[in-house]
Amino acid sequence: MSFPEGFAGHGAKYHASKILAHQATLTWMSSHSPSFSLVTLHPSFVLGHSLVQTSAEDIGGINALFWGALQAPAPQFPALMVDVRDVADAQIKAAKVELEGGESSEFLISQHPMEWEDVVAFLRKQYPQVEVKWEPPYPKASDVDVSRAEKELGMQWRSMEEIFGSLVEQQLGFRNVETGRL
Question: What's the pTM value of the predicted model, to 2 decimals?
């Protein structure tokens, strides 16, 4: 496979690795007919409070991509995300899914598509100290069908305000500690 250079290529490689890993898993399940069942979760962009981040500079993953992109002219990814706590909740609920040995099931884990306009309005109102340089028009998120996760796992998604609030609060907390500001 060939991939574009730079950021676009990194994203494409990441997505391709996930797709190929999932296909290999399904192929293995089919050819080996194991006695155990398999449930796979497929989250969209995962954001939220990080339990492993120890400083402002230690920000990583999609949190870092989002935080850094606030200074760019536009968002760097679609407004399709899920709170890290919802992913953890889905993992616990998926462990209780009843399947016969050798069967597999998969779930898309994502908050319903958001509008970047709403995210920007929330950030500017709730966190005026965070400079958001984004200007419309904003990219639209693809629609996703998460009804299966809602029905079979009982998923109820955290709100846009909870997702971005937890991320921003953590980053502002690190910055205040490191600068000595309250």
Answer: 0.88
